[in-house]
Amino acid sequence: MKQIFLLFIIVLGVCKIDSIAQKQPNIILFIVDDMGWTDATNPQFHTPNIALLAKQGVKFTNAYATPVCTPTRTSILTGMNAANHGVTNWTSPNKNDNSDAYDTQLNPSNWQMNGLSPLAYTSYPQLLKQAGYFTIHVGKAHWGAAGTPQANPYNLGFMVNIAGHAAGHPQSYYGKDNYGNLLGKTSYQAVPDLEAYFGTDSFLTEALTIEALKSLDAPIKNNQPFYLNMAHYAVHTPIQPDARFFKKYLKEGLDSAQAKYASLVEGVDKSLGDIMQYLTEKKVANNTIIIFMSDNGGLSLSPARGKIAHLQNLPLRAGKGSVYEGGIRIPMIIKWPAVSQPNTVSNQPIIAEDIYPSIVEMANLSKQKTIQQIDGKSFVPFIKQTNLLDSSRFLVWHYPNKWIDQDGPGINYKSAIRKGAFKLVYDLRTGNKELYNLNNDMGEHFNIAINNTAKTKELTQLLKKYLADNHAPMPIDKKLGLAVEIQ
Question: Which residue, 41, 81, 285, 455, is most buried by CB atoms nearer than 10 A?
Answer without folding.
Answer: 81
